[in-house]
Amino acid sequence: MDLKIHGQANADLPSAYRKVLVPWAVQGGLNPPVITHAKGCHFFDRDGKRYLDLASGYVAVSLGHGHPKVVRAIQEQAERMCWVASSYFNDVRAEYAELLNSISPWREGLRVHFACGGAEANDDAIKIARQITRRPKVLTAYRSYHGGTIGASSMTGVDRWRDPFPALPGMIKFFAPYPYRSPFFSTDPAEETRRALQHLEQVLSHEGAQNFAAILMEPMTGSSGVVVYPPGYLEGVRALCDRHGILLVFDEIMTGFGRAGAAFAATRLQVMPDLISFAKGASASYTPLGGVLVRESIARHFDTMLFDVGHTHAGHVLAVAGGLAALKVYLEEGLFERALQIEDWLRAGLAELQAKHPVVGDVRGMGALFALELVRDRVSREPLVAWHHPGGSAPMRTFYGALLARGVHAYGRYNVTIVAPPLVISKSELDEGLEGLDAALGALEASL
Ligand SMILES: Cc1ncc(COP(=O)(O)O)c(C=O)c1O
């Protein structure tokens, strides 16, 4: 068994890999391509087959692969120093924090706490909120995804049934708007906003608003459905937080760093939280980096109070150097604004697919983060596959299989597939991806 074989046909390689790897999937019979290298918006398997990455990996590789400026910065930093304890000040961390201040959604400025990824950042955001408010409870939405640690999966609202263990004590859920399938039986966006806010107020009143440290939510949801909230909803949540002394945390792990068409979704939507958790696009996945942006007036609490949150690799200098270089590239190449151009392309291209394919029930999104919700019937909106279908379903396997055969990568959950290309994608590359989607939707419909 030689696991180091690259670029040569070896039929046994997948079964050899299956014996030693534990990927995020049902593993028996798993036979994905063996990916060996990547460049720009494409990655390649060991046979040299090219795949267009229409989902930026897990909606994170926003600069595409192998950007020379980021690669060089990481190489140089590795030679200088990879790590120093977070109790020391460090020039790279400080330069990054200053640059983050230049894109801060808050006029008052921000301070940065580092973590190694998204789930850890959300866990830390809750610790910060609890330390400041000295309150125990946290509210998060059903149909949300906040990460895989015990803390973040307790916050996560989707697939709650799958974990045989209860969420951590104090992690309370509410229903947020979902205009395409309203949990409030509403028929228009204004009614959805009004009823969703009434529901949230009731949850707060039954659970005791004075017990809540934070409401933590994605400003638009990501892998749990790419739901864009109707006008006025987030403003209403902000007002409820203000009324009850609750901190508002935006999980911008997916929406941050240009994905929603601005530096942060908070900036684009003009609703200001108190803390923002970030990861993914921050370093465009060149290094494992996450963290929490804390608005200045909140961060000041820790001038006289112990900030009791930390990890060995939090603020890992190599990881931060990747983030700093990535942010410089985002700004130099105007990629946050470019997401708005991609938004126009996606709106038009995905609307064409919807017009052509009856299986496409809804197209929604913002910036360079869109989704197709697939249905059996457009009038009844019956989902193509049940929302709670474990381990994948035959129709979606057909769809993703056809897409991969065409050399296009995308992913999603149940009947919702995400379209979130790198922010550097060209129009012709995007058209190549849309053609792949067109063919895969055709194959799916033919199989039904
Ligand atoms: C909105 C959101 N929050 C948190 C996470 C968890 O991030 P990580 O996988 O880096 O722990 C994700 C990952 O998909 C996410 O989309």
CATH level 3 topology of the largest domain: Aspartate Aminotransferase, domain 2
By secondary-structure content and strand pairing, the structural class works out as alpha/beta
Total discrete domains: 2
- The spatial strand order of the largest sheet comes to 4-10-9-8-7-5-6
Bound compounds, each kind once, are: pyridoxal-5'-phosphate
- Compute the separation of the termini in Å: 41 Å
Kindly state the number of beta strands.
Answer: 16
Look at the structure and give the mean pLDDT: 94
Low confidence ranges: none
Fraction of residues in β-strands = 15-25%
Count of alpha/pi helices? 14
Order of helices and strands: HEEEHHHEHEHEHEHEHEEHHHEEEHEEEH
What is the makeup of the main sheet?
A: 7 strands, mixed
Full CATH superfamily name of the largest domain: Type I PLP-dependent aspartate aminotransferase-like (Major domain)
**What percentage of residues falls in helices of 4 or more residues?**
25-40%
Please give the CATH architecture of the largest domain: 3-Layer(aba) Sandwich
The geometry reads as globular
Rg, Cα atoms, Å: 22 Å
